[in-house]
Design brief:
Chain lengths: ~475, ~475
């Protein structure tokens, strides 16, 4: 049996100053933006700067049977990258180079630690764009976006991470490096392991590089439509009417009454009408103005009070209300941010279910939704006991309410998680969605990649 | 040891008239459109009409350790669905119902045996469209499109099969039914087994249903641009110039001189200039006319002789030249249709390689390309000895030339197969592209789904 000090010593012998055993670094690696923290402190944090650093770490992990938790910027919302006692935290945040940009092939090759926003700032100089835009894009890494299969606001029109990655370089648990995928638009040679790795949350290997599929920056103006409705069900039905009209917005965000009120408080705006919910919609591309006017007409026809602007700055001001959701929630208490997704037609029914859960469990669940794709973020508010390290435990009563809400989403044909992942916080519901047979099959696939079970154990597949 | 007659008897006892042991049916199941045929005759052809039929077949196959080869319409070009001695041919062609169309959720649920074109005819009544458009769409099934991860002409703008499937129902080798994927736009619960099944060529299970992601029929006109160039390299460079200009055509097809000449012969058109190659480009959507004019200007600037039409019928007449490629080739001799794909910027270099292979091997390789996405179909022409059943063996010298061409594509950052699959005809090159480690990992993943190795053995992964 290798002890933790032995493992730390072997890492230091191989990787020198890349290995950080300070309390501060180990404490930071325990938690992510979910507020959840792992038990105990990891053995060390390895700050990898190269593929070889990652390979060396994994060889030592394999030899000593030590679990490895890969981390990017630690912005996850499901505890998937939290490292605890007996584990190595492997940070790839420092591997943040852009290795290649090919405007002619509309691709870029990057290291995993680059921030999404930093990548897009660099691509903009070429008139290019990597479309995935999680709300965290200013602070989250491309590798983390890949590990979780991240989404964002623009997905209904421009796709999710899975639509925007051609290949990944993956270091296996034993340190071998595989190059998965291709640099071509089409490619069907063998099994699609690239898609398998996307969203696998660190259970199959360590992504040390990615070939990304780019788009050109969309030309033309961006128009914004803001519409209020007497209640959230009417707003949800209105978003369905927009989808049904055949016009494709780039963004279509819904805020329920509690969210809207909290943001208005935060921003010192006039209070919205009691019960009022809001849709904020953007259109882009060559027909943006025509499409915005068509959407406005659709929304008015279903009872909305509608404002349209063809001015980009004014549009950003309207969208800022939506973007202020998280700080507004933080003022209400401690939050568990959930992430169910339902077929778009089920959005009104899902809001009915949220109202039912609020009533039956006696709690408040302000909810925003990416209404264009049926992805909801219910925020469960509670009085959390903040631990000495700033982390919180979600009370059992809140999990009971979340359980009720998850089951409603599944009944409506939906899914537990649209874009945040399973991590540690949702693993107990995974088999409810997959079924026991598929759960077992998926677990066995992880064992093909990781026969010793050292890659992020206890996450996703553990009960 | 269970004998073939035993297996046939057990199938007949369970499935009655669904089991066809006639020579005609068994002969037909040996071959596909590649011209390749399996050795010997399969035990029987099971014409499944339901999920239960498929499950019953696979339970008997598992109990008797009998290989199963799943077939749709038999239009494959890699021998992937050819069934031979000792095997059960399981046809799902008769499972061709559309179970659900949801315009509000932009999805349809279908059985695997429906023809792509039949599905799209039915969807058109709802103003909807399943985008994958392999050239075989009038005769190939949705299940076959999924099994091969099919592409087509519209992929650069509208994506491939992998971009257009939300979920699949899969019967495993032991007869269990799994529901993979979801009905939502976003969903990251567990591993993405739907993507893993797409393109897996019958090695992981039998697809018995699919939830398809639909688009609305694109409004507006379709414009067509036809341009000739003095040689194929100039045409390839011109296609790259179009991609670089940022205008996204819906279709961009390239025909080299030999292809163009053969089609002009077939259609009794005036002979093209010696050496001349052609680009045929279509634009669609609200800005189709503006985009067509911009593309025409780009092509003229790089030396093209350009014709533009905003008339749909005239455009179809121009595109008919491209669509006549296969019958034109059939008049030249027997053909091995290949399917390499390279990064778009490498298209001119790949045509140089094809010319080199023609010279060095003393053969003619008329080539068409989906130039918008870098996918080439070189047609190796040879004098084939047609067997008694109409199938042909590709001569070793032709395979040597193909080998040379495959290696060129890989050197240019390309892939063995853009859209046809590995099947039986390309399995010996698979490890060259994947590397031995990835080849072995992929093979082990198939064993998780199919521990007895009865699903399409000898295809894709066998050496």
């Amino acid at each position: 049996m290798t002890t933790a000090p032995d493992v730390a010593a072997r890492l230091q012998a191989a990787l020198g100053e890349r290995v950080d055993t300070s309390d501060a670094a180990r404490h930071a690696a325990r938690a992510d933006k979910s507020g959840h923290a792992a038990s105990g402190l990891p053995i060390a944090v390895v700050h990898a700067r190269s593929v070889e650093d990652v390979q060396a770490t994994l060889r030592i992990a394999t030899e000593t049977r030590t679990p490895v938790v890969t981390r990017g910027a630690g912005t996850g919302l499901a505890g998937g990258a939290n490292a605890g006692a007996g584990e190595i935290a492997l940070s790839v945040r420092g591997m943040d180079r852009i290795l290649e940009v090919r405007p002619d092939d509309l691709l870029a090759v990057v290291e995993p630690g680059i921030l999404n926003a930093d990548l897009n700032a660099a691509l903009a100089e070429h008139g290019l764009w990597w479309a995935p835009d999680p709300a965290s894009r200013a602070i989250s890494t491309v590798g983390g976006n890949i590990a979780t299969g991240a989404g964002g606001l623009l997905c209904a029109k421009y796709g999710v991470v899975r639509d925007a990655v051609l290949g990944v370089d993956l270091v296996l648990a034993d340190g071998r490096l595989l190059q998965l995928g291709h640099r071509t638009v089409k490619g069907v040679t063998g099994l699609d392991l690239t898609s398998l790795v996307i969203g696998s949350e660190g259970t199959l290997g360590v992504v040390v590089g990615a070939t990304l599929k780019l788009r050109r920056v969309v030309p033309g103006v961006v128009c914004t439509v803001a519409a209020t409705f007497p209640d959230v069900r009417a707003a949800a039905a209105a978003s369905a009417a927009v989808t049904a009209s055949g016009v494709q917005p780039s963004i279509m965000e819904l805020m329920d009454a509690a969210s809207l009120r909290a943001v208005h408080d935060l921003l010192s705006l006039d209070a919205p009408s009691p019960g009022a919910a809001q849709l904020t919609i953007q259109t882009d591309g060559p027909a943006a103005d025509v499409e915005a006017d068509a959407i406005a007409a659709t929304l008015r026809a279903v009872g909305g009070t509608v404002a349209v602007t063809h001015d980009r700055a004014e549009g950003e001001r309207l969208l800022a209300i939506r973007r202020s959701m998280h700080p507004a929630m933080e003022r209400l208490g401690t939050t568990l941010i959930e992430d169910v997704s339902v077929p778009r037609s089920a959005l009104p029914a899902m809001f009915d279910e949220i109202a039912r859960v609020e009533r039956e469990h006696g709690i408040v669940i302000p909810t925003v939704a990416h209404a264009g794709d049926g992805n909801l973020h219910p925020n469960f508010i509670f009085e959390g006991e903040v631990g000495e390290d700033g982390t919180v435990e979600v009370p059992p009563a809140i999990w009971d309410a979340a359980d009720d809400l998850f089951r409603s989403a599944l009944r409506l044909g939906g899914t537990l998680t649209g874009e945040h992942g399973i991590g540690i916080l949702k693993r107990r519901w995974l088999a409810d969605e997959l079924g026991d047979d598929q759960w077992e099959l998926q677990r066995r696939i992880t064992q093909v990649f990781d026969p010793l079970g050292i890659l992020n154990p206890g996450k996703v597949f553990s009960a």
